[in-house]
Design a protein that fits this description.
mainly beta, 5-stranded mixed beta barrel, OB fold (Dihydrolipoamide Acetyltransferase, E2P), globular, 7 strands, two-stranded antiparallel sheet
């Protein structure tokens, strides 16, 4: 069974507190346990330092903290809006997705792998 995504409102990482909030996708329990490895494909919407917004194939946004990926030098650069991207990492207990890798994906969504 494919995990269902629910909506959670989170502030974009690294931005001031007076910035507008974004509605982003997270995967709730029992589909995701904190610490289990996941992979999501989508189009890069924006970046702000190590904070990334990824538009998933179903149209929802995923807020990604990519600080670990940058620290490990596991980021395909340059990152800019509109590019097909895959993120790999874990959801923390608070629902934030922490990427250990950010890579380029095939340009056509039909050739993307499954989200897991």
């Amino acid at each position: 069974m494919k995990p269902r995504l629910s909506l959670l409102t989170l502030a974009l990482l690294g931005l001031s507190s007076n910035v507008a909030l974004a509605t982003v996708a997270t995967v709730p329990a029992p589909y995701v346990s904190a610490g289990s490895q996941h992979r999501y494909f989508g189009l890069l919407q924006s970046t702000n330092g190590t904070a990334i917004m990824l538009r998933l194939r179903d149209g929802r946004l995923l807020a990604v903290d990519a600080s670990e990926a940058f620290a490990l030098n596991r980021v395909s650069e340059p990152l800019f809006a509109g590019k097909s991207t895959v993120v790999e990492g874990i959801f923390a207990a608070n629902g934030v997705f922490h990427a250990s890798a950010v890579k380029r994906a095939a340009p056509r969504p039909a050739s993307w792998g499954l989200d897991r």
